[in-house]
Write a structure and sequence with these properties.
Layout: H1 5-13, E1 26-29, H2 37-48, E2 53-56, E3 62-65, E4 68-71, H3 73-84, H4 97-107, E5 115-118, H5 121-131, E6 134-138, H6 149-153, E7 157-159, H7 162-172
Parallel strand pairs: 1-2, 5-6, 6-7
Antiparallel strand pairs: 3-4
Helix pairs in contact: 2-3
Length: 177
Amino acid sequence: MIGEAPLVEELRAAGLAPVDDARVDYVVVAFDRTFDYRKLDVALQAATRHGARLVGTNPDRTCPVEGGEIPDAAGMIGAVEGVTGRRVDPIVGKPSPITLQVMLDRLGLPATECAMIGDRLETDIAMGRAAGLGTILVLTGVTRPDDPAIARWRPTHVVHSLHELVTEGAASGSGLR
């Protein structure tokens, strides 16, 4: 597994046992600030010598942080794809319909009664639109207010902050809950 402690906890909670060994059935590739040559080599050996399937959590290129952005899961995915010559497939997190369907099933709600809230057009908003959800772009992350891609992706709502979403959404009677 290429990833950090919260992902290890999630995998364990799902009954999976993350290991640091090339003799595995799956290599999960995620955001990892401790990504290094050793992890890349284990992924290479697992995929090419042991036939492990490559699974990604999300294709985000960057992660917004105080003062800018840092590399996100796409950097680790790109490295693994580069050395193995194989695609990481499936992506099980955004924008994959897999995660969204699990969430809708858990909520017991149809997509038409839900909205996807996110700061990234190509994953968050794309995922919501593809599933028929309302989409709310929050301009606190990687997407800037003057980004011309906003018009192409056409989110249902665009807000500058989550605070604005809560206060103005409720005050406007927009149906947002």
